[in-house]
Design goal:
The complex is a heterodimer of chains A (313) and B (381). Helix content of chain A is 46%, strand content 13%. In chain A, the strands form 2 sheets. Chain A has a 6-stranded parallel sheet with strand order 3-2-1-4-5-6, sandwiched between helices. In chain A, strands 7-8-9 form a 3-stranded mixed sheet. In chain B, strands 3-2-1-4-5-6 form a 6-stranded parallel sheet, with helices on both faces. By secondary structure, chain B is of the alpha/beta class. Chain B is built from 18 helices and 9 strands. Chain B has 3 domains: 80 residues, DNA polymerase, domain 1 (Orthogonal Bundle); 159 residues, Rossmann fold (3-Layer(aba) Sandwich); 119 residues, Orthogonal Bundle (N-(1-d-carboxylethyl)-l-norvaline Dehydrogenase, domain 2), CATH 1.10.1040. Classes of the chains: A alpha/beta (313), B alpha/beta (381). The interface between A and B is medium-sized, with 23 and 23 residues.
Chain lengths: 313, 381
C-alpha cells in the first residue's frame, strides 16, 4: 500500500530557524511516522492517529501493522521522506541505531529540520551518538523515553522525559500531549535516557522490595493481601506496591511489562554507573535477581515474577 | 639480569675455577648489565666482537674493578654460549611474533627470547619495543608484519577491541599454518568471535589468559589457562613453558577466558573478604596482624590472606594489580552473567566496590586498596 499525495513541506511553509513553528497545531493534521508497533507503540500510534494525524508506519514484521489505519512504508527511509516527524519505540540501542542510521534508515529519508522522537529505552551514549549523526544532516533527535507501561500507553498517561533541544521539544509538545500528561525537558540529548535509567532503578528495586516484603509476610503465615492493603495507607505506599503488589497477591504473572525489558534496562544502568564510577550496590543486587528470573525462563512474564525468584530459595 | 645465569655458573665451575671466581664473574657480568642497562643474553654476547663493543661502552663509565676482569667474565659468557647446549641457545627455537609490550608483555617476550625462540615484536608505542630489540628481538612495523613468516603469534594487549584490531592485522598476513594466541583478559564471547573470524582466515586461534601478575611474568611462573584446539595447544606449549608454570588446556575456544573470569571472581571476592575481615578486627579494637597470623593456620588460609593481607598490614597499595583492571575484569564477569541469565550476588556486590574505587580515585592503586574504601565507609580513617 502506498500513498501518492505529495508531502506538504513543513520547511517551505515555515521560516528556516526558530521554535515558533509548532509541528502539531491543534487541528493541524500532520504526516506522522511511527516505528515500533509493540505493546507500547501500537496504542501510542493510535492516539496520534485519533488526534487527526495522518499515520505512516514501517514494521520489520509487516503483520505488526495489520489493521492499523495507517500508510505502510517499505523502509524507514521511505517513511522518513514522507514525514517531518517520526516516532520510534523499539527494544535495543542496536535496533534504534539500525533504524535511524543503517542502510535504508531514517537518516536517508528525513529532511533537514525534521524531528525524530525516540521513545525507546536505550543507553544515553547511544542516544548522543545517534543525535550527533542525525545532526550532520540537520535532523533533530529528541530522546524521549516513557514510563507508565502498556496501561499508561493505552490511557495516554505516560510520563515523558525528554533530552534534546528545548525549542525542538516545544515544537512537538502538542503531539506528545496526545501520549502523556507529564512531559519534562530534562536536558540535552542523552538526558532523557539518564532520567529513564533512574526511573528503572527506583521502580525495579521497589518491585524487589515489595516481593521480599510479601514473601516474608507469607512465610510468617500472614495474609499478604491484608499486609498490602494496610501498607497502602502508610509511609511505604507506592504505585509499585499498589499495582505490582496486587499482581503478586493474585499471583498474576502475565506480563504488563515483560521482565526481559527490565533485565535489558538494568544492563544499561549498570554500564552507565560503571562509566561514571558510581557505586550502585542495590541495583547490582537486584540485577542478579533479574538474572535468576531470566534463567527460570520467565523473561516474557511480568517483573512481579521476582516474587517467584525468592520462592526458589 | 643474566640469561641462563645458573648454567653460566655451572660452566665456569666445570673449568675448575674456585667458588670465589665464579661469584666474582657473575657479579662482573651483573655490573656490565647495569652499566649498559641491558640484560646479558646469548644474543647480546655471541663473539669477541660483542665483547669489545661492550668493553668500549663500559670503559667510559669507569666500573669498579679492572677492565680485564669484566672482559674475562664476558669472554667466559661467549665461550659458554658457544659450548653450552647449542640447540637451546638458538638453533631449535620457534619463530614467534609478539604483540603488546606493556607491564606483562615485555617480560613475557623477554622470557621467550631467553627460551631461545626467535622473537619479532610489535608495540603501538615504538619506545616500548626498545628493551626487546636490545635483548635481541627483531622489530616489526605492524601486527601483520609480526605474524608474517612466523609459526606462532602472541598478543598481550588491553581489551577486546585491541585484540580484535591486532588479530585483523595478523589474519591479513595470510601466513599458512599460523597459530595465534591471545593472552589478554577479554570476555569469553569476544574471544569466541575473534576465534571464528580467524578460523575463516585459516588461522588457528587460542585464548590463553594468564594469572600471576607482573611478578609471575618476570619470573616466568604465570598460570596459563588455554582455550582452543589440541593442535594449537600443542604448537603453543613450548612458548607457554617459557612464560609460565601451571599450564592447563581448559577446553575449546573461550574456555581459557571463562577460567580467567572465574579466577577474577575468586580473587576479587577474596581480596574484599580479607579487607572486610581486617576492617572487622580493627573496628573491634583487635590487632589485625595477630588475626591474620591466627587464621593462616586454619581453614581460612589462602594465598590472598597471606600475600595481599600482608600488604594491607604494610599499607603498601602500590600495584601489583591495579584496581581499575580488576574492575574491568569483574565487568566481564557481570556482563557474561547478564547475557547468560546467571545470578551472581557476591560478584555483583564486589564489582560495585571496585566500581566505587575507580570512581573515587583509587583506580591506579592495587586492588587491596578496597581496604581504604571500607575504612572510609565505616569512618575508620
Amino acid at each position: 500500500m502506498s500513498v501518492t499525495t505529495p508531502t506538504p513541506s513543513l520547511r517551505s511553509a515555515a521560516p528556516p530557524e526558530g521554535a515558533e513553528r509548532p509541528l502539531g497545531r491543534p487541528g493541524g493534521a500532520l504526516k506522522v511516522g511511527f516505528i515500533g508497533l509493540g505493546a507500547m507503540g501500537r496504542p501510542m500510534a493510535l492516539h496520534l492517529q485519533r488526534a487527526g494525524h495522518d499515520l505512516h508506519v514501517w514494521a520489520r514484521r509487516p503483520e505488526s501493522a495489520a489493521g492499523l489505519p495507517a500508510t505502510v512504508c517499505a523502509t524507514p527511509a521511505e517513511l522518513g521522506r514522507r514525514c517531518a516527524l517520526v516516532f520510534t519505540i523499539i527494544t535495543s540501542s542496536a535496533d534504534v541505531e539500525a533504524v535511524a542510521l543503517g542502510a535504508d534508515g531514517l537518516i536517508e529519508g528525513m529532511a533537514p529540520d525534521s524531528v525524530l522522537v525516540d521513545c525507546s529505552t536505550i543507553a544515553p551514549d547511544a542516544a548522543r551518538h545517534i543525535a550527533a549523526r542525525l545532526a550532520e544532516r540537520g535532523i533533530h533527535l529528541l530522546d524521549a523515553p516513557v514510563s507508565g507501561g502498556a496501561q499508561g500507553a493505552s490511557d495516554a498517561t505516560l510520563a515523558i522525559m525528554a533530552g534534546g533541544d528545548a525549542a525542538v521539544l516545544d515544537r512537538v509538545r502538542p503531539l506528545l500531549a496526545c501520549l502523556g500528561q507529564r512531559i519534562v525537558h530534562i536536558g540535552p540529548n542523552g538526558a532523557g535516557q539518564v532520567a529513564k535509567a533512574c526511573n528503572q532503578m527506583i521502580m525495579v528495586a521497589a518491585i524487589e522490595a515489595a516481593a521480599e516484603a510479601l514473601r516474608l509476610a507469607a512465610a510468617s503465615g500472614v495474609d499478604c493481601a491484608k499486609v498490602r492493603q494496610a501498607l497502602a495507607g502508610g509511609s511505604a505506599a507506592s504505585r509499585v506496591l499498589d499495582v505490582m503488589g496486587e499482581r503478586m497477591v493474585r499471583r498474576d504473572f502475565a506480563a504488563g511489562i515483560e521482565a526481559r525489558l527490565h533485565h535489558k534496562d538494568f544492563g544499561l544502568v549498570l554500564e552507565a554507573a560503571r562509566k561514571s564510577g558510581v557505586p550502585v550496590p542495590l541495583t547490582a543486587t537486584v540485577a542478579q535477581q533479574l538474572n535468576a528470573l531470566m534463567a527460570q525462563g520467565w523473561d516474557r512474564d511480568d517483573t512481579a515474577s521476582l516474587l517467584r525468584v525468592l520462592e526458589l530459595a | 639480569m643474566i640469561f641462563f645465569e645458573k648454567e653460566y655458573r655451572e660452566f665456569i665451575q666445570r673449568q675448575s675455577l674456585g667458588a670465589d671466581t665464579v661469584d666474582s664473574y657473575v657479579s662482573y657480568l651483573k655490573s656490565v648489565s647495569r652499566i649498559i642497562d641491558q640484560d646479558i643474553t646469548p644474543q647480546l654476547l655471541r663473539s669477541e666482537r660483542d665483547v669489545e663493543r661492550i668493553r668500549a661502552q663500559i670503559e667510559d663509565k669507569r666500573p669498579a674493578g679492572s677492565i680485564a676482569n669484566f672482559r674475562s667474565a664476558m669472554r667466559q659468557y661467549v665461550a659458554f654460549v658457544e659450548e653450552f647446549d647449542q640447540p637451546r641457545l638458538g638453533k631449535r627455537g620457534m619463530k614467534i611474533g609478539f604483540i603488546g609490550l606493556g607491564i606483562m608483555g615485555r617480560p613475557m617476550a623477554l622470557n621467550l627470547l631467553k627460551g631461545c625462540h626467535e622473537v619479532t615484536v610489535w608495540a603501538r608505542r615504538a619506545e616500548s619495543m626498545r628493551p626487546l630489540l636490545d635483548a635481541g628481538a627483531k622489530g616489526a612495523s605492524s601486527p601483520t608484519e609480526a605474524a608474517r613468516g612466523n609459526e606462532l603469534v602472541i598478543s598481550m594487549v588491553a581489551d577486546a577491541p585491541d585484540v580484535a584490531e591486532v588479530m585483523r592485522g595478523v589474519a591479513s598476513a595470510e601466513q599458512a599454518g599460523l597459530v595465534a594466541v591471545d593472552m589478554s583478559t577479554i570476555a569469553p564471547a569476544a574471544a569466541r568471535r575473534i576465534g571464528e573470524k580467524l578460523a575463516a582466515a585459516g588461522v588457528d586461534f587460542m585464548d590463553a589468559p594468564v594469572s600471576g601478575g607482573e611478578v609471575g611474568a618476570i619470573a616466568g611462573t604465570l598460570s596459563i589457562m588455554a582455550g582452543g584446539t589440541e593442535a594449537a595447544f600443542a604448537k603453543a606449549k613450548p612458548a607457554f613453558e617459557c612464560m609460565g608454570k601451571n599450564i592447563v588446556h581448559v577446553g575449546a575456544s573461550g574456555a581459557g577466558q571463562v577460567a580467567k573470569a572465574a579466577n577474577q571472581i575468586l580473587t576479587g571476592m577474596g581480596v574484599l573478604a580479607v579487607a572486610e575481615a581486617f576492617a572487622f578486627a580493627a573496628k573491634n579494637g583487635v590487632d589485625r596482624s595477630r588475626v591474620r597470623e591466627a587464621l593462616l593456620g586454619g581453614f581460612a588460609y589462602s594465598k590472598i590472606l597471606e600475600n595481599h593481607g600482608q600488604r594491607m598490614l604494610d599499607r603498601n597499595f602500590k600495584p601489583g594489580f591495579k584496581s581499575w583492571m580488576h574492575e574491568k575484569d569483574l565487568n566481564i564477569v557481570m556482563q557474561t552473567a547478564h547475557e547468560l541469565g546467571l545470578c551472581l550476588p557476591g560478584s555483583a556486590a564486589t564489582a560495585q566496590m571496585f566500581n566505587a574505587m575507580v570512581g573515587s580515585g583509587l583506580g591506579e592503586e592495587d586492588s587491596i586498596a578496597v581496604l581504604k574504601l571500607l575504612e572510609r565507609l565505616s569512618g575508620q580513617e
